[in-house]
Amino acid sequence: MSRHRQQNGPLLAEPQALEDYFGDLLDAPEPAPAEQEEERPAQNPRTRVAEAPPGPRSLMRDDILEPADTPVEVPASELAPVSGPAAPPPETPVGPTYPRPEKPFSALVIEAGPLTLLAPLVDLGGVTPLDQLNIRPTPAHSPWYLGIADSKQGRVQLIDLAAIVTPSDREYEPDTARQVVFLANSRFALACRAIHGTRTIDPEQLRWRSERRRLPWLAGVDREKMATLLDLTALHGSLEAGDWESGQE
């Protein structure tokens, strides 16, 4: 996977950082109720408001309407044959839908690349230190493909999560993973730099994504906590397809 080579700048310290990375991919925030009401200028009680002149009368008069069409009888021999019912219009293809939780949920806090990530616990199969796995490197693979390992989950393919989540304008830094997160019911596992426990996530506090033609694994961001929510089901599908940049149409 190609990355632009440039000097890594420091991460922004304010919630605007996630906006700079993914702002154009997120749904527009809903306007506050106060912003929806326009301010009305105060009127001077002594100022008279001129009444609008009455509008034009309706032009739909009998004397200017076109005459009604007179039915004309056509001989049966001149009628075109009826070829059956018309075909229904083609259905517009509908893209995949991404359900959103309605209640607070627990997520594992993961550090990978330049981001803090939130992985819903319901989609995880476990965690373990990277050095406790017997990893068999596979030759002729990219640096982010760390190899194959046997675990309690079975044989898994180990992917460096930093390569997936690092924005294209920043340089991917390999060899930083120290922990492994297993996806539930998947042949993939994700290597990350650190795990920082769990956190309860309120869906109302997230800024979600509806359109996911790019980066389908990016479900939304928590601007207050400076964290990115992962859609692990979509990420699993992207890894199976071999492309985590584009969404599945």
From TrEMBL:
**Region named Disordered:** 1-100
Give start-end positions of Pro residues composition bias. Answer: 86-99
Write the protein's name.
Chemotaxis protein CheW
**Record SUPFAM superfamilies:** CheW-like (SSF50341)
A Pfam family the protein falls into = CheW
Concerning InterPro entries, the annotation shows:
CheW-like_dom_sf, CheW-lke_dom
GO annotation terms (biological process): chemotaxis; signal transduction
Query: CheW-like domain: from which residue to which, for each copy?
Result: 104-241
